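::Encoded backbone::
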Amino acid sequence: MVNAVDIEIDHDHPSLLRTTLSGELTEISALSLAVNGTPWATTPTIRDPTAPKDRKIWSCELPPLLAPASGELVELIDCASGRSIKQVQLGMREPKRNGLGLLAAEVYGDGVNPLFSAPSMLFDGAVVTIRGAHLPPMGDPSKLRFVLGPGVAFTLEYPLYAPEFEAHYWFWPNAGWSGFHVSIDLAKSSAAADPFRISFVHVLDDAEKPGGAVCIPSQMVSSIGFPGGLDDPTPTQAQEPNQIAVFVGYNYFRLIAESLGKFGIAPRRGAALLDWQCGDGRVTRHFLDNWPGADIWGIDSDAEAIAFCKRRFGAGAFVHGSFTPSTPLATGYFDAVYSVKTMPFLRMEELRPWMEALARLLKPGGLALLAFSGECAAAYLSRYLNSDWWGRWRSQGYNDELCDPELKARLGVPEYAPVVFRSAENVKIESSQFFETLAIEPARFGYLDLAILRKR
């Protein structure tokens, strides 16, 4: 007999809907959920580990609420056949909140892009495997496409259960169904294929929206002689595994290079680039490897980091500079300056002098590519935030009340380690005296947004 156990709300998680499938319904691989007649999300069915083999379970988070709701009509639909499986009207449902009272609905969907992480790369000589997680667009894993180039032989597993994403992205519906594994078979891919890039595409309202990319180093030599972070952690450089340092650094390089290319700066002899607060050179080293003939510089306030770069790299120029805007570099020398992790630690009164200093270093019309903590970064840390903090952040577009506990512990100087959030509009205003804003690219580097500025 085909049957389904009654739909029920999970008492421990009031926004989570559950059901059990048995009999012929166990053939269903995924169910779509509609709420009050509007399609909401599609999530997979899984075998119930506590029951006989002829039973499956299914769960899906309901849309976030700003206020209590009752009488919602929910319907389960077999996504393969389109057949309605069950309808039921819910009782009273309370909005989802974190432990400090912040509403999930206040965080979700308000300028926040579905974030992704791909920290793990394995290579066995023939197959490259990338493991990571990508939040399902609109809470619906079926709205995410993985795109690889023509002729690339690959297998994909998605969605997979990712409990760490579910815990951290508490505000995002179905965040647990974020995990993915992509295995790329280099030997079976065509000779003309590019198997070293995975693009994410969000399919929303029958339209496709770019959702970021993962770039894979094609030269494994980039891992040689490059430990994760400095040999010994210093005040501004923490120790990290080699794999993360190389893989993440290469991704940042590719994304920065692509953004430069959009505005006319490409690999050529004499092109001068500056990595502002270059750290251990995990990004700069890939410009040295891949932009032959370009004039690549790095500057950092950490003398040990600069010494590390000078020891490790046989090219490029690395300069020790102050964390204040005073810099020994030449005026009007650089075509572009970039930085991934500097603006997130600069308060408003510290950033403005730096805007003037960076503009001085650039040639007329030169570009500044600066990552900053915006809406996505605030959402990333939202499980630690209360509604008062969130209200101030949303109303002001700026907040520097938090501090980085890891950096604070290493430095012992709290004033040096603020976590600064600024909206895209705030960045435009703070830089407008010296720069024209060409673009703001949300979630360009994980949860960090990217401002692309042109010297006035």
Q: What stands out?
A: Residues 116-215 form a domain with the Immunoglobulin-like fold (CATH 2.60.40).
